[in-house]
Amino acid sequence: MTGDREPGGEDAERSTQRERARIARELTSAVAGAHAAAMPDALCRACVTLLPEVSGLSASIAGRDERTSIVLFASDEIASLLAETQFTLGEGPCTEAMRLRAPVLASDLTRGPDARRWPLFAVQAAKAGVEAAFSVPLAGAAGPLGTLDLYRQTPGDMSNGHLRTALLVADALTLALSALDHASTDLAEVVTWLQGAESDREEIHQATGMIMVQLGVSAQEALLRLRARAFAQDQTSADVARAIIDRTTDLRHE
Amino acid sequence: MNRERELAKAFLDLADTYAPQFDPLHLFDRLVHSCRQLLTVDAAAVMIADARGTLKTMAATDEGAAFVELMQMQTGRGPCMDCYRTGQARAIPDITAEHERWPNLVTAMTDAGYRSLHTVPVRLHERTLGALTLLNTHTLDMPRDDLFLAQALTDSAALSLMHWATEPRYDDVTTRVQSAIAVKATLDIAKGMIAAYHDVSIAQAGRLLADHAARHRTSLADIALALVNRTMELALIPAPPSG
């Protein structure tokens, strides 16, 4: 029953937090000192370092329209091509990951059911030498901002450990992109927020909703404000969230 | 309604994936309330494992702050996590006997008014997805028939979660589960929005949303997403009656 497919160590929360911190450190060191224009490549390199078991990867951001997406970065030509192919065909793991707001894992594109599921995409992938593709949504608080797409030249499942890392990398990437969006020129802010990255407990989601109404901001903005307050007070986001829910803290004041 | 009819209705409700208000939130909510109604339990909650590593509470019959705290402290470790990891049901007829192993849990449980805890795994054939927790205010050795029924209801819910037509793939379960977790996160944001808008507690906000979904026969997940994306006005969720 248990074994490689079961995630979680002694205390799963702490174990996941350690992994988040490790990922944040990697992204932070990649981003610190980079110019805004070089940011996507810096993030790309960090993701490649963090996900060594894939052959290549790319990240795409969804446009306003469901059909328009842009490739933010790609580790190689194949990753870039795969992403573009899915936008063109409107079919593939990444379009589904966006729609379902969940990771979509195609461990063997060379035969059914994966090949049957995405017939056009599977053919194009095969031509590029890709036999497995995994797409993880960049899960913004209110819906996916885009996807992190991984591919392999050999078929095979993604292990639970790798899936966990991929999800946490996607979380951190989402945070970095939200912060970049918000920070515009002050990249030191991005580093700050990345370092404060932590768990996604239900209290944090609930507090995010409250802040959205109290400050009249988007979900992304609300979450950033919550994290900023946590950083300023040297507390965890969960602590600040609980205080907001209890009404002992109100971001409208001070 | 007699016992047999209650049982039949409970299983039918869990299987009715065609109902307009069907979504994973509704499903888990039905599961915990069926357990509360059909078994000798004072509270029930279901936690599902996020692929990131921790357990997430998907539904609970008790919305009190102490109970929420009790569940939230088990996202990383505790009897629910043990049940999930091993895929085996666990029985703790008297929590006070566990004070060496889980001192914080003992305090949280007794503070919330509960004394015994039983968990059964949420499973889909060979794979464990999470744990269902049953609590009582007094010490209790839950009868085997009750545990069997709890497991049967839970298994039905897991099957409905998949609601699959064609060729199920192992990875589709991951997708479905993570999708449900994403939907629950949206619901939590929507609860926060309503709580701030109407100046009520998170629990009350949850009830307002659920009532609205039931009245309009729509899925709670759809409403939550619409509120969070601002395609639905908060004012459309009426305030609780004053007084």
Domain count of chain B, please report it: 2
* Order of neighbouring strands in the sheet with most strands of chain A: 2-1-5-4-3
Mean pLDDT of chain A: 87
User: CATH architecture of the largest domain in chain B, please?
Assistant: 2-Layer Sandwich
Based on CA atoms alone, the radius of gyration of chain A comes out at 19 Å
Tell me, briefly, the overall form of chain A. Answer: elongated
Please name the fourth-level CATH homologous superfamily of the largest domain in chain B: GAF domain
Structural class based on helices, strands and sheet pairing of chain B: alpha+beta
Most extensive interface: pair and counts?
A-B, 54 and 50 residues
In CATH terms, the superfamily of the largest domain in chain A is GAF domain
How are the elements arranged and paired?
The complex is a heterodimer of chains A (254) and B (243).
Chain A: H1 12-31, H2 39-50, E1 56-62, E2 69-74, H3 77-89, H4 93-100, E3 104-106, H5 114-117, H6 119-127, E4 132-140, E5 143-152, H7 160-183, H8 187-195, H9 202-215, H10 219-232, H11 237-245
Antiparallel strand pairs in A: 1-2, 1-5, 3-4, 4-5
Helix pairs in contact in A: 1-2, 1-7, 1-8, 3-6, 7-8, 9-10, 9-11, 10-11
Chain B: H1 3-15, H2 24-38, E1 43-49, E2 55-60, H3 65-72, H4 79-86, E3 90-92, H5 103-112, E4 116-124, E5 127-136, H6 144-162, H7 170-198, H8 202-215, H9 220-228
Antiparallel strand pairs in B: 1-2, 1-5, 3-4, 4-5
Helix pairs in contact in B: 1-2, 1-6, 2-6, 3-5, 7-8, 7-9
Quick overview of this protein structure:
The complex is a heterodimer of chains A (254) and B (243). With 254 residues, chain A is of the alpha+beta class.
What does this structure look like?
The complex is a heterodimer of chains A (254) and B (243). Chain A has 254 residues and is an alpha+beta fold. Chain A folds into two domains: 12-183, Beta-Lactamase; 198-245, Arc Repressor Mutant, subunit A (Orthogonal Bundle). Chain A is built from eleven helices and five strands; from the N terminus they run H-H-E-E-H-H-E-H-H-E-E-H-H-H-H-H. In chain A, strands 2-1-5-4-3 form a five-stranded antiparallel β-sheet, sandwiched between helices. The longest helix of chain A is centred in the C-terminal third of the chain and has 24 residues, at 160-183. Chain B is of the alpha+beta class and 243 residues long. Chain B has two domains: 3-167, Beta-Lactamase (2-Layer Sandwich), CATH 3.30.450.40; 178-236. Chain B has helices spanning 3-15, 24-38, 65-72, 79-86, 103-112, 144-162, 170-198, 202-215, 220-228, and strands at residues 43-49, 55-60, 90-92, 116-124, 127-136. A five-stranded antiparallel β-sheet of chain B has the order 2-1-5-4-3, sandwiched between helices. The longest helix of chain B has 29 residues, at 170-198. The mean pLDDT of chain B is 91.
